Amino acid sequence: MNKSVLWAAGLGVLCALAALTMLAAPDGLGHVAQFVLSPETGLAMTTLAANAERRYVMGDNADYPMIADDIIFQGAAVGENGSGYSRPLQAGDPFQGFAEAKVDNTGGSAGDLDVHVKTKGRVQLAVAGATDVTANDRPLVYASDDNTFTLTASTNSPIGTVLRWISSGVAVVEFDAQLASEIRLRVAGDV
Prior knowledge:
5-stranded antiparallel β-sheet; 2 domains; Virus Head Decoration Protein, Chain: A; 5-stranded mixed beta barrel; globular
């Protein structure tokens, strides 16, 4: 029999025994976990000894808890209200993305429903001030509410940049919630 196969089998048995020891311990962590997680060792986590199933979020989408008693319509720019809840974007809100479907939380409490948003992509929008000349400079695009977009910063929320000019006041906007957050922090002097 191949030595590599025997070595892997032995290692697998040791890992299984370690896992059983941890599960059988009265405190639920087990002696091995206590040693590895102890302050004396300086380690915060153990390496995997077996496969770990992970739940991945695919693509550029996210789900956020919604504010109480409101409606977010499909296609609305979504912002965070400062308390951790999503709402139709208001000037100054951190931009979270665009709602992919209508969510009606009328009469509901904060967090009762989640809004599913597209956090990154390209979208055609009416953008005040967008001209064929401005498109070449890839200017920042801001939102003053869930459906009003402009090249004017003021107290508005950054959402992305002009990618391509379509016609007077209409452009393809490359939006990115992560980039918008970084821009907002830099403007505020927090980065």
